[in-house]
Amino acid sequence: MGDRVVKLRQIAILGGLLASTSFVSVPLIAAEPAKQAQPAISADASAALQRMGQTLRAEQMSFQAWTIRVYADPNGEPLHIFHTLKVTMHRPNRLLAEVSGDDGSNKLVFDGKTAIIYSAAQNKYASIAVPEGTIAGMLKEAVGRLGVDFPLADFLSDEPGKAFLTGVTSGRLVNTVTIDGAPYDHLFFFQPPGIELELWVA
Prior knowledge:
Layout: E1 9-13, H1 43-56, E2 60-72, E3 78-90, E4 94-101, E5 104-110, E6 114-119, E7 124-129, H2 135-146, H3 160-164, E8 170-179, E9 182-191, E10 195-201
Parallel strand pairs: 1-10
Antiparallel strand pairs: 2-3, 3-4, 4-5, 5-6, 6-7, 8-9, 9-10
């Protein structure tokens, strides 16, 4: 699918964190004094990411996310692929990720030494040794050696807020919305060459 990507739009809603917490150019007029340039990532968006990063750095954590990705089919028509991702982790080296969606179900298990990926739809699994023995090391191995697609890997890094911003050139707070009765900040980020990321953070 990656070869056919024309535009990627990720939408992630984070909820149930730790079970107790709920993620145009204006022409200048010569006569006016110069205005201070707006930061590429707004202060409120940056603050929301910092709060999210503090929560996601917990030693033990679980969360659920919903993602939508847009791919082009062989005829160039956009296809929306929906996934539900459930992650349970214990830093630095234990992880269980369960993914279910329009294209089947998969499971990723890491015990600190070995990563096992299981595809229920294809009734196949793969097992690889992870020399580094950390969650970050495991994700590098799984993506590099097995082609695992894990769009929310940044949330599992040691510095989630910073990792999320890798390659991002702009970001802002859109508004505050209510999801399941709780308020969430709706954030929008852009990453060249055309990746748009939307994030809802409690």
